[in-house]
Write a structure and sequence with these properties.
Layout: E1 2-6, H1 18-32, E2 36-42, H2 45-49, E3 57-66, E4 69-81, E5 84-90, H3 92-95, H4 111-129, E6 133-139, H5 146-157, E7 162-169, E8 177-179, E9 199-200, E10 203-205, H6 206-213, E11 216-219, H7 222-227, H8 231-234, H9 238-243, E12 248-250, H10 278-290, E13 301-305, H11 314-319, H12 321-326, E14 330-334, H13 339-351, E15 356-359, H14 364-373, E16 376-379, H15 389-395, E17 399-403, H16 406-411, E18 425-427, H17 431-445, H18 448-460, H19 465-479
Parallel strand pairs: 1-2, 1-6, 2-5, 6-7, 7-11, 11-12, 13-14, 13-16, 14-15, 16-17, 17-18
Antiparallel strand pairs: 3-4, 4-5, 8-10, 9-10
Helix pairs in contact: 1-19, 4-5, 10-14
Bound molecules: adenosine-5'-diphosphate.
Adenosine-5'-diphosphate (ADP) binds at residues 17-19, 21, 305-307, 334-336, 362-364, 367, 386-389.
Length: 480
């Protein structure tokens, strides 16, 4: 099949979260299955500066009608590996910036213009390249307008650009909602600025377009597929999602084992496997040293790697500061994002420097060291579409402690509920729920045989993209 992906992030070029990992690994896995894969990505500064992009060549110049203007741009293309072509949608005014979505303080004010331009440029590029995709697979709100624009363009030009479209919701909390006047920039017919179009409480909602107009809708876990049909998790789009219930499926993301594998991870001070775990001790010692924790210490190390956003349950960890201060444990956090959360985590690390360490930035190498060197990985998310770190943790023999939501429930088995198969601990997403699970973690760690068995079962699980990509492959075939 000719499969075109459209996304605003792609590992290793630009990443703010799991979206980049998922699109990077899925596209590679589809190419491994023999498909011809293309990925459209905004030509951000960071991507253009990446060594892979040095070979990028202009595929075509663009003139994109946007409202009453015609905006110029170009598509530059390169092939990072056999079977995959990356097409960068370039326009300096929009994408030659440091951040993908904002400057760290707040989102860019012209994000609607940027991503409407991106979506239109993709459709125009598909038209110009005359390639006729079998599947156009769009990810999250930044690409959600593509299925809508594609069908409009096909009608206008009397061509078929894509046999089928797929839209994936990686996180329904981010919808791309903009003032109503933004609609004119889409140049879509007025009838689409209504309730059964992309109109949303007198504004426009780009994600709604993807949900309503794609042939198939997917999200990143079966549990989340159910949750987003409820008011509690649907963030106002639950009713819209319900209308597509028959075409909606939840497919778990995989782990990119070329990057996340303790037996071959070059970012670690030592490597290890199920058969020989001694390298994990080296990683733990290195992590403790890196955090400035000196002296003999035998208790459990709790690791956290997360965007600091309300979603990730960092408030629940902060609410349990007494637990970390009064027990013989260590807490190592890596993350950036919300300023308030950053300040509060920093304050906790200052209060208890011998026990709590905080790295307030994006740091790939540190994220690998935390996954390898911790004994437990904390992920008490309030909601979690799929989540990757709880899977990385199991692969790295680090017992995940997660909340009972979304993809976390689909990928972790509680060791107390199911002593034969358990690979982690699951709690209610509340401060008392987390405390209860932290106590269970202490009890588990105090029993090395039981703890070791939980580790081993986690490491034995197959989270690779091979099976995940197979599920997408079947979905594509089925839709065609
Ligand atoms: P989300 O997409 O909601 O952020 P996921 O668990 O799906 O959550 O994916 C998060 C990804 O981002 C993981 O690969 C995680 O390791 C990575 N990550 C998050 N924060 C950081 C950080 N500060 N430094 C390095 N990697 C990070």
């Amino acid at each position: 099949m000719k499969i075109v992906h459209v996304a605003s992030e792609l590992f290793p070029y630009v990443k703010t979260g799991g979206l980049a990992d998922a699109v990077g690994a899925l596209t590679g896995a589809l190419a491994d299955r023999g498909h011809e894969v293309a990925v459209y990505l905004p030509g951000y500064r960071a991507v253009l500066e990446h060594k892979d992009a040095a070979t990028a060549e202009r595929s075509h110049r663009l003139k994109v009608e946007q409202g009453i203007e015609f905006l110029s741009g170009e598509v530059r293309s390169f092939s990072p590996r056999p079977g995959v072509t990356v097409h960068l949608v370039c326009r300096e005014e929009f994408f030659d910036r440091r951040g993908a979505y904002g400057n760290g303080e707040r989102d860019y004010e012209d994000n609607s213009e940027r991503f409407i331009f991106f979506s239109k440029a993709v459709v125009e590029s598909l038209r110009l390249s005359d390639a006729g995709a079998d599947i156009v697979h769009c990810h999250d709100w930044q690409a959600a307008l593509v299925p809508v624009l594609l069908r409009q363009a096909e009608r206008r030009h009397g061509v078929t650009l894509a046999l089928k479209t797929v839209f994936t919701i990686h996180n329904i909390a981010y919808q791309g909602v903009f003032p109503s006047r933004t609609f004119t920039r889409t140049n879509l017919p007025d009838e689409l600025n209504q309730m059964d179009g992309i109109e949303y409480y007198s504004q426009i909602n780009l994600m709604k377009g993807g949900i309503l107009f794609a042939d198939r809708v997917t999200t990143v876990s079966p549990r989340y597929a159910q949750e987003i049909q409820t008011p509690e998790f649907g963030c106002g789009l639950d009713g819209v999602v319900q209308t597509r219930a028959e075409d909606l499926v939840g497919l778990i993301n995989g782990v990119d084992t070329a990057i996340w594998n303790p037996a071959s991870d070059e970012q670690l001070p030592a490597r290890y496997s199920r058969q020989n775990m001694s390298g994990k001790k080296v990683c733990r010692a290195e992590l403790l040293k890196r955090c400035g924790f000196t002296g003999a210490f035998r208790g459990p190390v709790f690791g956290v790697v997360a965007r600091l956003a309300a979603q990730k349950g960092v408030d629940l960890i902060l609410a349990n500061r007494d637990f970390f201060q009064s027990n013989d444990v260590r807490l190592v956090l890596l993350g950036s994002g919300d300023r308030r959360l950053e300040e509060e985590v920093r304050a906790l690390a200052r209060e208890a420097p011998s026990k709590v360490h905080f790295t307030p930035r994006l740091d790939e190498a540190m994220s690998h060291l935390i996954e390898a060197g911790s004994d437990f990985f904390l992920m008490p998310s309030v909601f979690e579409p799929c989540g990757l770190n709880q899977m990385y943790s199991q692969v790295y023999g680090t017992v995940p402690l997660v909340s009972r939501v979304g993809g976390l429930v689909d990928t972790v088995i509680d060791a107390d509920d199911d002593p034969k198969h358990g690979t982690g601990l699951i709690c209610d997403p509340s401060s008392t729920g987390l405390l209860e699970a932290l106590q269970r973690a202490l009890a588990l760690f105090a029993d090395p045989a039981r703890y070791g068995a939980v580790q081993q079962r986690g490491m034995a699980r197959d989270f690779s993209w091979k099976s995940a990509a197979g599920a997408y492959d079947r979905l594509y075939q089925d839709s065609l």
